[in-house]
């Protein structure tokens, strides 16, 4: 089946209550911070919006509330060029509250409440939408929105769809290795790789994935850059030297920029260089979506950073 060159993202933005603090409070302390309001963030939403901003045809499959918060989410996606035609609008009394507090360049995220669980059985039209995608980008666990997500992932793989997983250290899922094994491209950070490899070396864990058909394991390393491992190569690339203001969403920017590079036919090393630059640029600005960028902005940042070395 011929693919039509788009990336389908499972999920979308969430609204973060966003605070900037002068310092992190000690136990029992009271401090004054700057409230930036409710800002559109979320790992899938950030990645989708950035991918679209980089000129990749990007679609989201999600269930978004019909309330005013849902309208803000839809507007954010449309503004950055994301196709929202496969987003379902439904109201739910369940709400996931996300509070982000940023201090001295690092952030802490507090989650409360419950994300609505939809467990949708996909229609033939929705399945065809995923079958026609070149890449499908998801969290490891998508059962909150799609019924029997593991069977769904296996079905996509059988139809030749390339799956991308962003593995967060907080993710818990039964049969997690079976899910990862469905992927073509796996992203994680230095904390996630420690969790998922367990007692194995990173190299042994990567080889186990490659046997299952995974083609790339990409590990982000914060200010140290990234490591890219494939069956043919294993290399690390340094990050650009910047003063971090807010690290929120930097990983999402890295992942989506790397994917956009791959979809444009760039090799892994070039993709890593661009993704590192985009993520480094993202941490210099506050806000969960500060990493949404363009090729021109990334190249300008890379030129300026080279001059500072």
Structural class: alpha/beta
CATH fold description: UDP-N-acetylmuramoyl-L-alanine:D-glutamate ligase
CATH class: Alpha Beta
Separation of termini?
A: 47 Å
Write out the CATH superfamily name: Ribokinase
Order of secondary-structure elements: EEEHEHEEEHEHEHEHHEEEHHH
Residues in helices, as a percent range? 25-40%
The CATH architecture is 3-Layer(aba) Sandwich
Instruction: Output mean pLDDT.
Output: 92
State Rg.
19 Å
Instruction: Outline the low-pLDDT stretches.
Output: none
Strand content: 25-35%
Shape, per Cα inertia axes: globular
Strand elements, count: 13
Main sheet, how many strands, which sense, barrel?
9 strands, mixed
What is the strand arrangement across the widest sheet?
5-4-1-8-9-10-11-12-13
Tally the helices: what do you get? 10
Protein architecture, described:
The protein is an alpha/beta fold. It has a single domain (6-12, 42-91, 117-308), classed as UDP-N-acetylmuramoyl-L-alanine:D-glutamate ligase, CATH 3.40.1190.20. Helices cover 35% and strands 25% of the residues. It contains ten helices and 13 strands. The strands form two sheets. Strands 5-4-1-8-9-10-11-12-13 form a nine-stranded mixed sheet, sandwiched between helices. 42% of the residues are buried. The mean pLDDT is 92.
Summarize the structure.
The chain contains 10 helices and 13 strands.
């Amino acid at each position: 089946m011929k693919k039509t060159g788009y990336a389908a993202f499972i999920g979308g933005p969430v609204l973060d209550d966003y605070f900037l603090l002068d310092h992190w409070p000690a136990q029992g302390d009271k401090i004054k911070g700057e409230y930036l309001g409710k800002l559109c963030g979320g790992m899938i939403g950030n990645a989708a919006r950035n991918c679209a901003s980089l000129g990749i045809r990007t679609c989201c499959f999600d269930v978004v509330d019909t309330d005013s918060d849902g309208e803000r989410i839809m507007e954010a996606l449309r503004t950055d060029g994301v196709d929202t035609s496969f987003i379902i609008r439904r109201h739910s009394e369940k709400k996931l509250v996300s509070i982000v507090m940023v201090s001295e360049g690092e952030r802490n995220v507090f989650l409360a409440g419950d994300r609505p669980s939809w467990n949708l059985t996909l229609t033939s039209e929705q399945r065809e939408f995923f079958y026609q995608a070149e890449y499908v980008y998801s969290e490891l666990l998508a059962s909150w929105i799609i019924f029997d997500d593991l069977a769904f992932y296996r079905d996509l793989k059988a139809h030749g769809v390339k799956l991308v997983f962003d593995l967060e250290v907080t993710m818990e899922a039964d049969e997690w290795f079976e899910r990862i094994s469905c992927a073509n491209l796996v992203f994680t950070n230095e904390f996630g790789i420690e969790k998922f490899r367990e007692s194995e070396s990173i190299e042994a864990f990567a080889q186990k994935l490659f046997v299952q058909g995974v083609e790339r394991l990409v590990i982000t390393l914060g200010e140290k850059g990234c490591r890219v491992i494939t069956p043919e190569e294993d290399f690390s690339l340094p990050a650009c030297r910047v003063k971090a203001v807010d690290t929120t969403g930097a990983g999402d920017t890295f992942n989506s920029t790397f994917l956009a590079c791959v979809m444009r036919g760039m090799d892994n090393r070039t993709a890593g260089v661009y993704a590192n630059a985009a993520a480094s640029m993202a941490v210099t600005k506050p806000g969960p979506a500060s990493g949404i960028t363009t090729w021109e902005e990334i190249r300008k940042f890379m030129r300026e950073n080279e001059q500072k070395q």
